Amino acid sequence: MNDIGRHTALVPQHGSRGDPWRASAPPIYQTATFEQESASEFGTYDYARSGNPTREMLERHCASLEDAQAAFAFASGVAAVTAVARLVQSGERLVAHTGLYGGTQRLLARLAQERGVEVVWTDLVDGNWRTAVRGARLVLVESLTNPLWRAPDIRLLAAACKAEGAWLAVDATALSPWLQKPLTLGADIVLHSATKLLCGHADVTAGIVATRDATIAERIGFIQNSEGAVLSPFDSWLLLRGMRTLGVRIDRQQANAAVVAEWLANRGDLAAVHYPSLPTHADHALHASQAQGPGTVLSFETGDETRSIEIVERLERFAIAVSFGSVDSTASVPCRMSHASVPEALRHVAMPPSDLIRLSIGLEDPEDLIADLEQALTATSSNATRTSSVPCGKAHAPRTTAHMIDNSVATIPRSRR
Ligand code: PLP
């Protein structure tokens, strides 16, 4: 039964195996504690932070999809990143890619400051990273990187890490195991913000860590239980439900994304379009050699930051939202949104271009998305209404501000605080 197809692997018979009532859908064990036989005889489960059947069903499923030995479900992607970063002790070196998600950069900068971890930032895609990796305990990269969708050479990095005795961790949020399995390319750890593609419906925040290494599994399991940022039974169930359609969702969203990317690239009036299936993408061939597809998110530059903001605000089919990977399309300006939490000291190397627009493509008809983009691009072309450029990192005042409290902390999204 090992050689099953990719779609079959996504819809295992979760329910009936081991459930006393043979429920055919995964049951939710919405309980914090489990009654024990006696004060000295304990069953498989005693307390839901340490183990819960619904969460474990999800964890077994994720391990199987990643070709891992073990997987762990956390309350958010950042909790998963935190658990992985905890593998590095005070005085040890953690090498991080310069363009990581803003929240990950903020977390690692704090770890360096407060826990004495030596965090070395380096470009793990294009840079001369071999020196930095020397003596490292952990190397952390995203595949693809967000929001420029660059592809690190995972096989090359894994070999270099192995030679140095370092662990390679790949945050594969942008691809999911449907499109890439970093453990099969030599990485030691794969992690996800399951809030994105794995969930697919933008209704759960969750994180997954998976590994084949018994030592890493034991340590991540200890951190999960002892620090307690576990995924709840209900969210585990929602994630299990969302993952049943992972393949069909991604295949369709990715096909839509490719149509939109090509349409944008063929216009010829944009400064750049970033999507790995475009022949102009810097990592086109490398990415094709280590992944099953380019993903569902793309980005483009207009050359004019103020115009980019106007375009995003004029879009009607795309909600302006951080995050990506849901069945409905969203648009963002990463410099001001997902990457606004990049620490001040890293801003000169780690910020996306200020005119960059990120589009997460959903299940809509691509013609509708293109029509919407067309109207927003046309309305802002040539001498549109813009007046002055707003520097990146400064709060941009939306046009309809009547309901907002001027300059109050309440108007600053929590993710940026
Ligand atoms: N990793 C990547 C690549 C992300 O984009 C994000 C969030 O956007 C995270 C980790 C953090 O995940 P979460 O928001 O689920 O905590």
Rg for CA atoms:
22 Å
Order of helices and strands: HHEHEHEHEHEHEEHHHEHEHEEHEH
CATH topology of the largest domain: Aspartate Aminotransferase, domain 2
Count the helices. How many?
14
What ranges have pLDDT less than 50 throughout 5 or more consecutive residues? 383-391, 393-412
Which small compounds were modeled alongside the protein? pyridoxal-5'-phosphate
Let me know the largest β-sheet. 7 strands, mixed
Q: Domain count, please report it.
A: 2
* CATH H level, superfamily name of the largest domain: Type I PLP-dependent aspartate aminotransferase-like (Major domain)
Q: What fraction, in percent, of the residue positions are helical?
A: 25-40%
CATH architecture of the largest domain: 3-Layer(aba) Sandwich
Q: What value does the average pLDDT take? A: 90
What is the straight-line distance between the termini?
A: 49 Å
> What would CATH call the class of the largest domain?
Alpha Beta
Tell me the β content: 5-15%
Strand order of the largest sheet: 1-7-6-5-4-2-3
